[in-house]
Amino acid sequence: MVNIVKVAPIAIGAAVAARAIIRRGRGGPRAASASASPPVPPVAKRVPHKVLFGVVEGENRGTKPMDPPVERDDDLFWLRDDDRKDPSIVAHLEAENAYTEAHLAHAQPLAKKVYDEIVGSIQETDDDVPFPWGDKGHTYMVRTVKGKAYPIVVRTLNDKDWETVLDVNEVAAPLKYCSVGAFRPDPSHDILAYSIDPSGYETYEVRFKDLVTGEDMPDVIKGTAGGVSWGHCDASTGHREVYYSTQDDAHRPDKVWRHVIGTDQSADTCVLHEPDELFNVGFGRTSSGRFMLIESESTETNEVHYVDITAGPGAGQSLVLMQARRMGHRYYPEHRGDHWFILTNRDGKINFDLVRARLTSPSEDHWRTVPGAPGGGGEGCDGVGGGDGRPFQWSEGRTLESLCAFKDFLVLEGREGGFSAVWVLRLTEHPADSEIDDGDAHACIASWHKTSWPSQNCCVYTSVASSNLSCVGANQVFDTDTVMFSYQSLTTPKTVYAYDMRTAQSKIVKPTPVRGYDADKYATTRMEVTVRDGTKVPVSVAWRKDSKTPKGPMLLSGYGSYGVSNDPTFSREDVPLMDRGVVMAVAHVRGGGEMGRHWYEKEGKYLAKKNTFNDFVDVAEHLVATGWTSTSKLAISGRSAGGLLMGNAVNMRPELFKCVVAAVPFVDMMVSMCDPSIPLTTGEWEEWGNPNEEEYYEYMLSYGPMENIKKGPKPEVLITAGLHDPRVAYWEAAKYAARLRAADERKDSRILLKTDLAAGHFSASDRYQLYKERAYEHAFVLDSLGLSNAKPGWAK
Predict the structure, then answer these.
(1) 749 catalytic per annotation
(2) pLDDT by residue (tens digit) across 102-118?
C-alpha cells in the first residue's frame, strides 16, 4: 500500500486509544476521601480580550473576510501560552489537577482495580504477527515484554535466531515521552531510519542505525513532521537517499526534502514547497518500490507529483506532475507494471472510482476504467462474488477508501451498505492483439471478489505490524499471493488472517490474546435509529449477557467528523465496564464516513454540521425511550472532534446525560478557527467553514460549544488535555472547564479537568500509562453512575 505520510485530522478516540496522564498536582489534597468538606475549585481570573473575526492586517483570514471585522470578547484568552512555560498558567493547570484528584480520591481503589483487570487481560510478553520484509529473506516481528512500556522490533533469517533491530525502551529511557513516527529499513536492510517525537508536540527527529554493526549513525535530521521514506539507494556505491518533510510556523507540513546519507542536513534539497496554507504535503513509496509519490492535499483537493527513484540519484531525476489540482478533485495513485491504478472522485463519484493509465500517459485525459479480461484470464477464484472477467464497475453504494497493489492483485479497502469491506481484484496481462483494443491492452481484471468475514458489523483492514507500532505495515512483499488482514468487532479481539488472494482462503495467524475473556459471554447488535429529519442512523451496541439490565448503565460514544468511520472495534479496556453491567454503544452519526462519502460531504460538514449533533442527541433519546438505559444511567464520551460533539450534546440536552468524558475536546472552535497562527486552522476551513467569512460566521457561532453554554444544571464532566498538544491546544479544555463551572446553577456538579503536563494529543506513549488513563476515566464513569460503592469523605 502506498504509505503517504501526512498530518491526520483531529484524531478519533477509538482508533488511537490514548488519554491524559494521571498526575498529582503540587500541593493537592492527599487524603481527600477523608475530608470533611468538598474541595474548592480553582477560579480562573477574567481578563477582557478582544478577538477579531474578519480582516486583520498581515494575517491570512481567508478569501472573503468580513470588513470591518466583528469583535468578540474572550476573557479567558490569557490561558493561551504558545510556549507552554508560563508559570502562572502551569500553576493553574496543576491546581485543576489537584482539584480533580481530590474529587476522585475515593474512586482511586476502583481505578486501580480496573487497571489491574485490564493489565491482567494482557499477555504482557507477546510476539505479534511475523511478516516477511526485503529481498534478503528477513522476517520481522514486534515483541512486547512484561514490565516494559515500549515495543521491541526483532528480525530473523532462519525463524530461530532473532536479533534486535530497535528496542524503543532504550530510545525512550532518557525521555519523558517517546512516540515512534516512522520505522523504515533501507532496501538492503542494512540501515534503519526511524523518527522520534520526544514531547508530544509532533515534531520529530529522524535517526539512523547501522543494522550491521548495531551502532547509531551520525546522521540526524531535526525538526521534521515525522515521516521518512527511502529514495534512490545503491548498495554498491553506498549512495542512499531519504525523503522527509518539515513544517511551517503554524505546524503545517509544507516542504518535502531529500537527504543524502553522510551529508549535513543543511545540504539537503527541497523537492517540493507548498505555499498554499490550505494544503499539507505528504510523501511515500509505491508498493512496487519504484516511485516516490509526493502529494499536496487539502480536505477537498489534492495533486500528486512523482519521482522514479530507481532511475538514479534524485539530483538527476525530474519531479513529474501526474494531474494538476482542481477544486474538489481528489485522486490516489498506485503503481503496478506499466500502469498507474488510481482512485478518483471525478465526475461526481464522491465514493471514488477505480481507473488506470499507462506510465507514459499519467494525466487525467488518459484515465480509463480497468477492463475485464475475456474469459476471466485463467485459473483462480473467478466469479467469487464478482464475476468472471467483468470490470469492477463503480457503484453508488460502495465507497473505496484505499488501494494497495501487488504483482498480480489489487486490494481495495472501503465500505458497502454501511459496513467495513475489502475487495480483491486479480489482474492479468493480455497481448496487444487481444480483442481489447484501446491502445492499452494490459492489466485487465481476471476476476474480483469481496472478502467474507465472521460478522458483517466489524472492522477489517490490511494489517499493521502491531498496535504498538502502527506506523509499520505487515504487507511488505510485492510479489506474493498472500495478504495479511486484521478483523475485529465490538466483542471479537483483533485477529490477523493470512489471506490467499488467488483462492480466497484464509487462516488465522495471530489472534490477540485477552486473558480471562470469553466472547460467548458477550453479545453485540446493530440497530438503526430514525432521527428528526427522517434519516436512519446506525448504532452498534455490545454488552455482557448476564449483566445487562433494563434501563441500566450505558456508555454512548460518538465522533462524526472528517469522514472518519467510527467502526465497531474491540477494546480490552471496555471489558471491565461490560463486566459491571455497562452497555457499550457507538453512534455512527453523520459527519463520519460509515454510510459513504455523502454521510460526510453532503450531510455532515460546513452548513450541515448540526446534523452530527442532532443525530447523537436523537440516538441518546431513543436509547432512553426504548429502555436500553435511563437518563440517570447514561454516560457519553468523545475525543478531540468527538469532544466538539460532547460539547454540543451537553448544551442541547444537559438533563439527558448523567456524565460526560470529553477527551482533548475541540470546544473553542470559534476562537481557534479564526486564528491562522494556530496549528491546523487554515486547513480546517474546508471542514467547518471559516468564521472570518460572513457565510459561516453566524452558523458556526450558533453551535460553537463555548459560545452556547447556558446557565443551568450540568451533568458531571471529566475533561482531559495534553499540555503539548498541537492539534487541540490545552487552553481549550482549561477554558471549557471554567465556563462550564461558571454556568452550573447547582454549583455542585463535578466538572473536572485533568491535564497531562508531559504529553500531547495522543497522551502517554507508555502502554501501561495509557491503561491507567483509561482505568481512571472508567472509574469516573462508574462512580458517576453509582457503581463504585464509594463516596467522598464529605458525603459520608
Answers:
(1) no
(2) 999 999 999 999 999 99
Among 646, 663, 661, CA closest to 784:
661
Beta bridge mates, 394 = none
* Residue at 113: amino acid letter: K
pTM: 0.93
Euclidean distance between CA atoms 180 and 164, whole angstroms: 16
Note the pLDDT tens digit of each residue in 161-203: 999 999 999 999 999 999 999 999 999 999 999 999 999 999 9
Is pLDDT of 32 > 70? no
3-state secondary structure of 684: helix
Q: What type of residue is 522?
A: Y
Candidates 725, 744, 756, 783; catalytic one: 725
Known catalytic membership, residue 440: no
Model confidence at 429, in pLDDT bands (50, 70, 90)? low
Assess contact for 257 and 245: CB atoms under 8 A.
yes
- Distance in angstroms (rounded) separating the CA atoms of residues 449 and 382: 8
The CA angle 69-70-76, to the nearest 5 degrees, is 120
Local structure of residue 700 (DSSP, 8 states) = H
Options 106, 251, 761, 778, the catalytic residue:
761
How far apart, in whole angstroms, are the C-alpha atoms of residue 680 and residue 726?
8
Asked about 434 being catalytic, the answer comes back as no
Query: Which is catalytic among the residues 195, 640, 784, 788?
Result: 640
In terms of C-beta density within 10 A (0-12 exposed, 13-18 middle, 19 or more buried), how is residue 75 classed? middle
Burial of 463 per CB tally in 10 Å (0-12, 13-18, 19+): buried
Radius of gyration of the chain (CA): 26
Q: What is the DSSP string of 622-678?
A: HHHHTTS--GGGEEEEEETHHHHHHHHHHHH-GGG-SEEEEES----HHHHHT-TTS
